[in-house]
Amino acid sequence: MPNKKTSAKANARARRKSLRLHGTIARDLGVLIVSGRYQPGDILNGEIDASDRLQVSRTAYREAVRILSAKGLVESRPKVGTRVSPRVRWHMLDPDVLSWIFEFEPDDTLLSNLFELRKIVEPEAAALAAVRRSDAELQEMEKALAGMAEHTLASEAGRLADQEFHSAVLRASRNAFIVSLTSGVGAAISWTTIFKQRHNPLRRDPIPDHARVYEAVKAADPKAAHAAMLNLIDLAQLDTANSRKPKAKAGGGK
Hints:
The chain has helices spanning 4-34, 47-54, 58-70, 95-101, 108-132, 135-151, 156-172, 176-179, 182-196, 207-218, 222-242, and strands at residues 74-77, 81-84. It has 254 residues and is mainly alpha-helical. The protein folds into 2 domains: 7-89, Winged helix-like DNA-binding domain superfamily/Winged helix DNA-binding domain (Arc Repressor Mutant, subunit A), CATH 1.10.10; 95-242, Up-down Bundle (Four Helix Bundle (Hemerythrin (Met), subunit A)). The protein has a two-stranded antiparallel ribbon. It is elongated and about 60 Å long.
């Protein structure tokens, strides 16, 4: 007969498996939604039908739907079911939503919107950081630059260092609302960097662009910091456009 300790371990394993399961279901459904397979207004399968089709428990499916609902992708109503929400309600900067968007090739407008947001937020944050940063925050930026140089953006460690650089700039702005965007901006930077290398290695080293932002912030020059960050994002957008997979020509001619 199993003792209490053995039962507790078994229950813990079951909970972890359940967490992984409903997270996987949420991801699969999320990808179908953001890729357009499910359109806004579409009704997802009912809980019983969906759980039977996916061969998962109703609890796991229900939890997955709750995850999607919290991210604004779906809404559930009695007697109506679970409906895909209009895109205007999606939490576009949610790290999971961004990762699902970049499972495929995002459309040009969406990519343009993402870089447009960065150009609105990050140059202003860099300008504020130039006059508000602490020595500790400068050290964080310097450490992140060193990590990018050591590991390169082709590695996960290098991309994490890149995120940390931008996060340090946002934190140094000392604006609570700007700082609240750190997670979303960081995810956007990470996924666009991965996307740029999906078909070919990076054609250009972006580390000097980051170094110019750092030097302007260190010099307490808000105008230079704003210009350096804006230039960094402009070049990143150009790199992303150049990395797009060429579209097949109509007619399929050789």
